[in-house]
Amino acid sequence: MAKSSGSSDAQRTSVFIRGGGFANKGAEAMLLTAGAAVRERFPGSGVTASLRPGDQASAQEEGLRYVSPTRAGRLGSILNKVDTARTLLRCGAMWDVGGYQFSDRWGAAIPARHVGLARRFRGASKPVVYFPQAWGPFESEGIADAVRRLLDVVTVAFVRDAASLEWLDRICQGRHPNVREGHDIAWAFRGDGPEVGRGLIDAAFGGAHAERRTVCVTPNMRMFEKDEPGDAPYGAMMERVCRLILEREDTRVLLLGHEIRRGAGRPDDRAACRALHERLGESDRVAVFDRYATAREVKSIIGCASATVGSRYHGIVGALAQGVPTAVAGWSHKYDELMGEFGLKDLLFGTETDPEGVSAVVSAVVDDDGTMSERLHQTAGRLRAGAEDVLRIATDLLEG
User: What is the predicted pLDDT for the residue at 2?
Assistant: First the structure.
């Protein structure tokens, strides 16, 4: 029996999404934003996501199909190939929403794997879109070659910042025809709203100090892991940040992770929050947000803060998008480029920054009189419009 036109259309406009997930809240925000764009434009279309096993319960709650191409062993390899074949039949396009996955830091194996799957989709005349992300550096020729091969295969690869674009121009000896500039789609992500955020904050503090301003501090567990006993520059820096905030009698500090896993597994940012809380000692003006939370809930919490200080890229995006004054403890060019969009590179600091410099940055955001917030809203509106343009281009390609 021939398939109906409706069934054919639904298959053509269904999408396979890589690079998302539910542990990292930025990856979740991008996955859900991309999925929502498909469903809103093409009701009835499906979204299949490549996810780790621990993310499957969250995928079911969001109504997503999922595959887990990380099975090990001979049988696992066979099952992975079966999943890929089924996905190729079910979906009309492949979208990648990863935030930062191609650079010397991560090696050549990652882009090489991407090339293989992208070729499967392009060989079936199905579009492959890499959403705005960070690229580079590429000092290694082996990695540069793998990335060039990937760019040759994709329909379009978006770049979210000038430094990344410069790296791609360098390894391609000019602008590659499949490369375009675009804004991170997380700018278009919507949270649950201020009522939800306020309720979650009050619950974290047990209802205490509700009259005080909440400042969110978002440490990065991966940075904490680099500290060693007797030599913990990152932990010491973040402790100093919290103590500077608490010098203001009208503040309270919420330690909020942006990598929050469901169930057991690798320690997430809540472990960093607990470690930081321990360094600070007993204080009922400091609370750890210690339960699992969705990306929508986390964004809602951030939106209710008077200021934030963080080391998670999409946590910073979530704050800036809502006009929340934000200081950044960064470690990569992606943070420089992000704050540069707002003309606020002076609010970046790191473990090499002297104590006076850290104090000045913290004071600038915690003591803002509303001037910075207004400026953030204006720039964020432009970036949100740019993100919506990227989503429109990607969904246009599903029209055939």
Answer: 41
- Sign of the four-CA dihedral 366, 371, 377, 383: negative
Q: In terms of DSSP H, where are the helices of 285-332?
A: 295-303, 313-321
CA distances from 400 to 11, 92, 310, 394 (A): 12, 9, 42, 11
Q: Of the candidates 217, 326, 231, 225, which has an alpha carbon nearest to the alpha carbon of residue 280?
A: 217
> How far is C-alpha 70 from the geometric centre of its chain's CA atoms?
21
39 dihedral zone (left: phi>0; alpha: psi -120 to 50; beta): alpha
The predicted-structure confidence for 289-315, as pLDDT tens digits, reads as follows: 999 999 999 999 999 999 999 999 999
Dist. CA 58–CA 55, nearest whole Å: 6
Opening angle at CA 95, ends 292 and 330, nearest 5: 55
- What topology is assigned to 5-188+384-399 in CATH? Rossmann fold (3.40.50)
Each residue of 13-64: pLDDT tens digit?
999 999 999 999 999 999 999 999 999 999 999 999 999 888 989 999 999 9
- Give the mean pLDDT of 336-356: 95
Residue from 158, 262, 186, 193 nearest 31 by CA: 186
- How much is the pLDDT for 283? 84
- Looking at the chain, the domain(s) classified CATH 3.40.50.2000 span 5-188+384-399, 194-381
- Give the pLDDT band (50/70/90) at residue 3: very low
**Count of residues making up the chain:** 400
Task: Determine contact, residues 64/35, Cβ cutoff 8 Å.
Answer: yes
Closest CA to 246 of 304, 285, 207, 201: 285
82, containing H or E segment = helix 73-90
Mean pLDDT, residues 328-355: 93
Residue among 124, 52, 44 nearest 400 (CA): 124
Q: Which CATH superfamily is domain 194-381 in?
A: Glycogen Phosphorylase B; (3.40.50.2000)
CB 133 within 8 A of CB 158: yes
- Calculate the CA 252 to chain-centre distance: 26
Q: Which of 68, 77, 87 is nearest to 20 (CA)?
A: 68
pLDDT bin (cut points 50, 70, 90) of residue 71 is: low
Residue that has been written with the tokens 């919506």 in this structure: 388
